[in-house]
Amino acid sequence: MELTMGQRDELQGLVNSPDVAATVGTRARIVLWWAEGRLKKDIAALAGVSRPTVDLWLARYAAGGLAGLLDHRRGAGREQVSASVRARVLALSRTSPPAETGLSHWSSRELAAYVARTEGVSISHHYVAKLWRDNKLTPHRQGTFKISKDPEFAEKVADIVGLYLEPPGGAVVLSVDEKTQVQALDRTQPLLPITFAATEKRTYDYVRHGVTNLFAALNVGTGEVFGECYPVRDGAAFLAFLKAAVKPHAGKEIHVVLDNLSTHTTPDIQSWLAANPDVRFHFTPKGASWINQIETWFGNITRQSIRRGTFTSVTVLIKQIRDYIAHWNTNPAPFTWTATADEILAKVRLVQANIKKLVDNNGK
């Protein structure tokens, strides 16, 4: 069974989600292990289930995707929720939690509890999770929606989204940024387990061997990634990376999406841009790095390669990063950008209105 990168992320999301039963996480692991090429008898032993059970969940995933791995409650009637409450849940799901909640993002349980408090209507977290699946919403993975105070926010959003949705004919669009201070951590022997209620969690000691800075450029049209590691993050390192990133596209019109760091606008870089008029910079709004597509790829490499890795040196860490990039580029796929500039600006206006309402209410 071959899985796309998106399918792997979805399955890993089930494995890591606190909102699904452990049995569902095990089913997701079964599919992931099978995609890795493991034998079914080995998967059964790892999962602690029978061989026919492995066949059952592989077949259900093949037939129904993620929905095939979820439990369907029997005997209970369908949860009756009014259209207005349903609309309220969807609206909340598309914005960050209000500041007074102290939450960085919604979970299905937190959103259900919030609706119960504010609307006086009791809904289950199962209903919220199903609504998210039906509408392809993943607020538990997206995190916060940060509001930019950039006075040119609307113009910059329109510029960059225009590049994503309708790039100039024959042009190359590169989404560029740096992931700084990536640590080479060597996980050593586990410490004594810490007991929380009836569960036990082992903690680990770490040895830190140093850090590196990952510079990366995502080709928005093809999904290919060019990346290099540097010991420092300064204008000279960025210019060296930029020259290498655009070199394969010589002779083409190149648009580079990047943030507003001072290292991106040094005199040397300005001189290089003047000497290379085919390369044009498009700066994201201040405080709005979420619009830069390379941030999505950084999330992937962090979850899939770096976060749980053990690296005995910076050299080992850099090799892991390069191996991941090489693996990614064997079957790259561009990220699908669907939100128009008008939709983004409308969402920002909605969030701003909610904040103003909150401030006004607290001031009374």
Automatic annotation (TrEMBL):
InterPro entries: Homeodomain-like_sf, MscS-like_channel, RNaseH_sf, Tc1-like_DDE_dom, Transpos_IS630-like
Domain Tc1-like transposase DDE: 200-314
GO function terms (MF aspect): nucleic acid binding
Gene3D superfamilies assigned: Ribonuclease H-like superfamily/Ribonuclease H
Cited PANTHER family: MECHANOSENSITIVE CHANNEL MSCK (PTHR30347:SF1), POTASSIUM CHANNEL RELATED (PTHR30347)
UniProt-listed NCBIfam families: transpos_IS630
Name of protein: IS630 family transposase
Taxonomic source organism: Amycolatopsis coloradensis
